Amino acid sequence: MEKIMQVEKNRVVTISYEMKDNQAEILDSSEESGDLTYLHGSSFLVPGFERALDGKKAGDGIQVTIMPTDGYGEYDETLIFQVSRSDFQDGVELYEGLEFEAEVRDELRWCTIAAIEGDVVTVDANHPLAGEELIVQAKVLEIREATPEELEHGHVHGPDDEHHH
Ligand code: ZN
């Protein structure tokens, strides 16, 4: 008898999903973004989402409310700070709402420009969904073992991916 595969660390999982905030507004869904394939246990999904999928099998559905501490974190006002325009690379057009990744307190964080006044740029290094309670529905579509190369890279390689190192 074939063993039924479960979602666990180092397996590649494909899901359909819908993520809402607690006002029932859709933040993201596979209807918009396509089904999601990711490496389970690689922190690709927020902790509460991964935990809810642990041990599930293809065809299983989940519905879970994820608190900020298990989601994108609590909103932290000390992660708002001011830098100078010259701290950005030359030629980058800066505007309010611009999102970028940057190292903040030794951690790569998703940042947003909150305001620009003259030479002073106010950066918010909270994830845009920090402090949000997330309501997630998902269905497991497919599970497979990750390849050694995927485990080494820490992410999934699709069938059509260009080879990379
Ligand atoms: Zn890779």
Folded structure, characterized:
By secondary structure, this protein is mainly beta. It has helices at 30-33, 47-53, 148-153; strands at 11-21, 26-29, 36-39, 61-66, 80-84, 99-104, 107-117, 120-124, 134-145. Strands 1, 2, 3, 4 and 9 form a five-stranded antiparallel beta sheet that branches. The chain has a four-stranded antiparallel beta sheet with strand order 5-8-7-6, with no helix packed on it. The chain is globular and about 70 Å long. The protein starts with 10 loop residues before the first strand and ends in a 12-residue tail after the last helix. Bound molecules: zinc ion.
Question: Helices, strands, pairings?
Answer:
Blueprint lengths: L10 E11 L4 E4 H4 L2 E4 L7 H7 L7 E6 L13 E5 L14 E6 L2 E11 L2 E5 L9 E12 L2 H6 L12
Antiparallel strand pairs: 1-2, 1-3, 1-9, 4-9, 5-8, 6-7, 7-8
The chain binds zinc ion (ZN).
Zinc ion (ZN) binds next to loops.
The gist of it:
The chain is mainly beta and 165 residues long. The protein has helices at residues 30-33, 47-53, 148-153; strands at 11-21, 26-29, 36-39, 61-66, 80-84, 99-104, 107-117, 120-124, 134-145. It is globular.
Keyword list:
single chain; 165 residues; mainly beta; five-stranded antiparallel β-sheet; 10% helix; binds zinc ion
The portion of residues assigned to helices is 10-25%
Instruction: Provide the list of bound ligands, each named once.
Output: zinc ion
Alpha plus pi helix count: 3
Radius of gyration: 19 Å
Main sheet specs: 5 strands, antiparallel
What is the residue-averaged pLDDT?
93
Secondary-structure element sequence? EEHEHEEEEEEH
Give the strand content: 35-45%
